[in-house]
TrEMBL record:
Cross-referenced PANTHER family: CONSERVED PROTEIN (PTHR35908:SF1), HYPOTHETICAL FUSION PROTEIN (PTHR35908)
Stretches assigned to the VOC domain: 125-239
Protein name: VOC family protein
Species classification: Bacteria, Bacillati, Actinomycetota, Actinomycetes, Kitasatosporales
InterPro entries linked: Glyas_Bleomycin-R_OHBP_Dase, Glyoxalase_6, VOC_core
Source domain of life: Bacteria
Pfam families: Glyoxalase_6 (PF18029)
Gene3D superfamilies reported for this sequence: 2,3-Dihydroxybiphenyl 1,2-Dioxygenase, domain 1
Amino acid sequence: MSSQLFAICFNATRPSELARFWSGVLGWEPAEGPEDGVAILPPDAAGFRIRFLPGQEPRTGRNRAHFDLTSASPQEQRQTVARALELGGRHIDVGQLPEEEHVVLADPDGNEFCVIEAGNKFLADTGVIGALACDGTQEVGYFWSEALRWPLVWDQDQETAIQSPGGGTKITWGGPPVAPKTGPNRLYFELALPVGADRDAEIDRLVSLGATRTATGAGDDDRALLLDPDGNEFSLRLRG
C-alpha cells in the first residue's frame, strides 16, 4: 500500500498562534489528541490536515510553497482578506501587478498566501484551499504524481499540477526559473502509511521514483525524512 498525503506542515516560531490564525481564516477545527500536536482538520475527512511544528530557523527569502484561497464572489474575497487582517495577517508586495485581481498576504509568521478572485476556472470546485502553489520543476511534478498516485491535471510549458482522484486542493509547480534553495523549507509534505505497512518498501519505491534518503530522523522508529527531486524535504510516517 502506498503512502498518502497526511498533512501540510509549517515550521513555525509560535505554532499555537499560527494554528489559531489559519483555523480562523479557513474555518477548520483544531485537532484533538497528543499524536496530532498543534494541527487543524479539514471539514472533509478525505482532505489533508495542517500541522504546526516548532522551528526557529531564520527566514531566508520567499517560501517555495504557498496556499491559494478561493472566493465564490468578490464580496467573499473581501471578507476573507478582512478576516485574515483582523487575525494578524498583512498585505505584502511580491511583485504582483496592479491589474491582477488576487490579493497577496502574509500570515503572522511571514508565510505568503493569496486570496484568489472569484471566477477562477482552474480552481473551481477545489474547496477553500484551491491550490498549494509551489516553485518547482516539471520533474518534481511528475515525481509527486507518481508518489501520491494523483493524476496530472495540468502539464504545459513545464508547469504541472496534480489533484487527488477524489478532488479537492490541487498541488501546482510553476516550472523554471526555480530559485535556489537556501535552507530548510518552512512548508513541507507529511506522508503517512497505515500501521503494519512495509515502510522500507515504500521508501524504496519513493527512491526509485527520484527521492533521496537523508540521515536526519534515521533514529525515529516511525518517521523518515527524505528529499524530492528538487531537494524539498518531506517526511514519511506510520499512523494508527
